Structure formats: structure tokens, C-alpha cells
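Handout, page 2. Input:
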Amino acid sequence: MAAALRGGMTTTADPLPLSETEALAAFARRDRAYDGRFVVCVTTTSIYCRPSCPARRPRPENVRLAATNEAAEAMGFRPCKRCRPDEAARDSHAVARAIGLIGDADARLPLVDLAAAVGYSPDHFSRVFARATGMTPAAYGRALRMERAQDALASSDVTGAIHEAGYGAASRFYEKARERMGMAPSAWADGGRGVTIRWAVAQTSLGPMLAAATAKGVCRLSFGESEHDLRTRFPKADLVEGGEDFARLFARIVAAVEKPGTPSDIPLDVQGTAFQERIWAELRKIPAGETRTYAQLAAAAGTPKAVRAAGSANGANSVAVLIPCHRVIRSDGSVGGYAYGEAIKRELLKRESER
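Output:
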């Protein structure tokens, strides 16, 4: 479909924020992640649509692309009544405003108040917000408070960090911290003090691989690193080499590395900012044997303009292969960078494509 659309398609004078090839491919597969990044104009009906519009696809010679709703309307097109692209812009502004309100609030904002502030009903806005960010407003607020707490813990005592982050009660913070961090907040603030991390290094076909795990799951998987590197990350953790239980987990990790793309339920213990965790979640959705560009990754996470930030979040992944950051390439089709070298990245992609 994308190839066919390219044949007779023309674009508006306004530059698109992505390549025509990428835009047409998104339109062909009705990709909701691209809604708001461009619109598709149909000359035979004089309407413009979202990329995800469920309507039947027009003939290639009747298709034009526009960067914005305003550009499409300036050309004489009107919004489609089925997919309502004019509402996409309104939704985007509402979500951006809600994120600002959540960030400025000293305490949790009830959904009914947040929705009223941006002019939506609570249930509808919850769906709009989740579609744009990958989480509900309540979940976003919790993630933001935890992110602030993690930042504050680097320079504050635990009690101070709890209040700086906007938690009304210490017990609530400790409960959420154990769920999300995998370790007590005092250990997080003090280089892993009180946390046992089991680890091992194995020779794999990709070179020496280090894997480490807390009681919750794998917290580090890397190539070419040693115990010294692990201790630099967690200088006060109790590092224990091997162990019977860890040996079984380690064998599963090695198998996942040797045959990347094999379905795996290996538990993870990773933590990052709310944005990083959205990016990591999208990475895990990329099917083995396929790749995405940094722009596609940012769009899938609901932040199409945050391409550079998506690249940084991709690079911050601490568990190689298990969170497949190697499946992200540059827009020009080149492999791009990889923390452990381009050769390993190419080999991982090669093995997945062969499967």
C-alpha cells in the first residue's frame, strides 16, 4: 500500500516533520501513534484525515500530505467526520496542559478536577491521556512523584525526599518505592546499601556477558563489563557471585542472548524516569526481526517531537537484549550507535531476521 501511495502523491509546501515514505507507511497501516504528526488530504472528497482513519484508503493520485490541520484547511480541505482530525490537535493541547497541571500540583489531582480544567469528561479524558502517554493521569502523577523522589534522594535525606516529591505520608512512599524501585529508598540513595545483587560473567558468542539480579529480577545485562563496573553502579550493595537459584536464571539469560527474539518471561528490576520507562515499554513491543527509527519510537511513546530524548532513553537501557534497544535504527536506514559496539548490534539484528 505504501509503495502504491507514493506513486501519485504530492505534499503541501509546508515541510513534513518526517519523511514521506514513513508517513505513507503509517497511513497504510492506520498507525494511531502518528496521529497529530501529519494529516492525509483526499482530493476527491475535499476532506483530510488522521493517519489512523478507519475509512477505505483512497487512490494514490488523490492523496496529498499536509503537516498540520491548518495547512490542510488553507488548501480547502475540511476535517473528516469519521476520524475527526481536528479533535487530535485539541486532544494534544489538552494532554500537554494536563501534564503541566500535574507537574505544578503539590498533591494528587483528582481526575474529575483535571478533566474539568481541560474541558473534557473524566472517562473520555482518561482514555485520551492514556493514548497519548501510555498511562492514565493517576499513573502519570505517581510516576512523576517517584521520579522526583529519586532525584531528591541524591541530595536529601529520605524524609526530606518524601516531602519534596509531594508524598503526604512516608508509608505511601515506601510502599510505592518497593514496588517500583525493587529496593528500599534508603538503599537507592546510598549506592544499594542493604541490597543483595547476585552476578556472573559468561563467555557468549557475542563476547563476555555480565548479568546481575536482585531478588526482584535482572538489574544489569551488559557486554564487556566486570564486577568492578557493577560495583561502580552499586558501590554499597552486597555483591554475591553465582548461587544455585541465580544459576538457573543465568542460564535463561544466556539462552535469550544466544537466540535473541525468543519469547522470554525473565523478570526485570529496572528503574528510570517516567519517560524512560515509556520508551522501554515501547521497545519491548517491537517484534523480533523488525526495527523502528528513533522518530517512530518517540511517536509510539506519545511524544513525537521528543526524538532526541527517545534516543537518550534508549541508550539508558541497563538490560541489553531483554529490553531490545538494538532494534532502533536511524531514519536513513543505517544501524546507528550501540553501547556495546555496532558489530554486536548488527549480529543481534541478523540473528533475529534469520529467525
